[in-house]
Protein 1
Amino acid sequence: MGHPLVSVIILNWNQKELTDECLRSMSKVSYPAFKIVVVDNGSIDGSLEYLRGRHPGITYLANRDNLGFSGGNNVGIEYAVAEGCDYVYLLNNDTEVAPDFLDSMVSAMESDPKIGIAGSTVFYFDPPDIVWFAGAHANWLRGDMVDPRVGKPLGTELPPLEDVDEVAGAGMLVRTRLIREIGMLDPTFFIYYEETDWCQRARKSGWRVVWVPESKVWHKVSMTFGELSPVMTYLMTRNRWLFMKKHCPRFPLFAVHYFLRGAERFCRFAIHGQPGLAKATYLGIRDAFLGRYGKGAMEKLRRKSA
């Protein structure tokens, strides 16, 4: 009996050197049945030519525009499913992987046909033993995903497989049968909370979402927007509302908390001399209330913070 086929989808947007490093890491992977699909999200830095010259044996798909994490990955997912893969693995381009990271993931999936999504342990690239994200559980009042392992070493004695509400979109394995049943990532989010939404849609349809401690990925964090940038603040503020509107069992209670928390953050940023973050918070709340999703005010905030 052969090994299930995995399509590893790597999304690139003007980060050819990081993607090159990720692909070099993938060249050491021990799992025998995988293909790589690089989706370029409308880069203008010559990424495709650069990567094709260094990694000619993989598939490249080119988008004319930046479709965000959700829309860009959906292009790769649609291609991979049409090609007949058994599983799709979404891997951030700003990561490097352990050689056996796929072996443990596929083994976990094959152990139970009701597991629809599995997540790797994602560590900081530096320091490499500290957890960036593993598996999280929902706080339905705040609209946050809580992972008690974040910022701590995992230790040498690994915990068992764990059912969770969310795994990291930076490293997640998804069963093709689940994708055919519930669909792909919701492009409305553009970026942030789309994998959280996907996990919740899977759980609502009766699938298990699990964290696989043995599968290890290292994340070069915040290469795209930076820690607590105006763009990230805007998108996280806006998309938290969208996610909770879709899934929160007591949404009116959350809505009160959301506006109070947003007002507190706006005032705190303004008082501490961070007008860019204050404005991003306001725009996030405004666009959430008005239903303005996709790129929204992202480009305006990026220009002002440049």
Protein 2
Amino acid sequence: MIKTEKQGLFHLLKIATPFIIITTVYTILVLVLEEYFGDHIYKISGQIGSVFGLAVAFFLGFRMNSAYDRWWEARKIFGELTNNTRSFVAKIYAYYGNEKHFKKTEQNKQNNLSLKGRKVIELSILYIRQLKNEMHNNPHPTFDNQSLELISEFKINTDNKISNEILLAITKETEDDFAPIARIEKGDLMQHINRFYEIQGKAERIKNTPFLMIYSAFTKLIVSFYVILIPLFIGDIDLGGEESGFEFLAVPIMVIISTVFLTINKLANLFGEPFSENKTSVSIDEICKTIEQNCKEVCDKLK
């Protein structure tokens, strides 16, 4: 997770370094050919380069904004998941601490109610882990022994979509435990479960919807074409004449311009995949780890 500008600069350099190397080699090659075969033998009008570059910049600006909006929406979804889970487990703690909310068969069994409350919270933790795995393209992970016990106890069908099965188990447990007079408490918990479904649906919508594939391919093609033409637009710099050596200042200028365009396009690609496991993606691993810790703290209070 990028937490400081220094770390951000480090990761930016990692992304930009391959472009710096490639464009440097290409630029030197073009300028050497120009010097060997004759001065400005293939230079194109700089006005054409200016107009073309402005058009490419507009394309990249729109693409970067769209990618960032997609990334920010993903971050808001997992922020909503954090808030909903914390509120849900807090209400489990409160409601399962009052025996009047439950059916007569469950009343006067405080230890049993506490155990049931812990089980629901453990199911919530299992749901958070599973949702994270599904976002990382791992819908059928290897479960630990505790998770396998929960799956067996609540008859969760791992052949189906596991996250949905866990929510169904939580819903059934809530319906079976609470008495008819506790319809407010039960309805409150059901609303939280509905929010889990909504959050999951939003996350799956982003993950399963490709980010403007044709537009991305078109932008990459245009940026690559423009970078190839940059040495032809700029050529060498004749400051002080042919013998001055200042003409080689064209190399860093062209490398910087090319690297900027290529790096922005690469960043747009990375931001467009907010659930991938790279430094620019939403840090859902850390978010889910925090949620699990919060759930465990509440779960310990029910012992």
Protein 3
Amino acid sequence: MSEAAATLDAMTRLIALLRGVNVGGRTIKSAELADVFRGLGYDSVKTVLASGNVVFETDESVSVARAHLEKALADAFGYDAKVHVLDTASLSAIVDAYPFAERDGWHRYVVFLIGADGSRGDLSMRAAELDALANRVTQLAPDSALESIADGGPVLYWTVERGHTLDSVVGKAIGSGKEKTLTTNRNLNTLRKLLR
């Protein structure tokens, strides 16, 4: 096998979910974002929607890619970048395990615990800070007529009535203070687009 073929075989398709992009006054154009990824030597770079979702290929591990991306994004755009990186198999398993049925007038979200190992549903693989956050949020006992939350290991599964995302019990818990830097949320429909 040639060296070029061996390199191609070692490439893995990864997905980067950037926290806080194009919200709260931080605007990053998709073309500029893709340029940062290409500048790191990543291949097949594709941005999806304008909310910090990037599909790319690399021979780096998830944790190495995450460290490189956070530094490169901080350098390029001047902010404390937080990025969750996982492979497509992990994302597919997370999407397939979504526990709440689709309901008219409701959002279906996946709350990613930034840096939690996305390859396992094993709760022991979460860092202590992420585990404490997940336990705190899942024990809030939200009003089931408005929202529901479930622990999925590297993620929290959340469904909430439209119009109540920010003012719900869970929305307030993950959207304020230090907690908001530990998570990034995506709609289930967006995650399915990332897997196409």
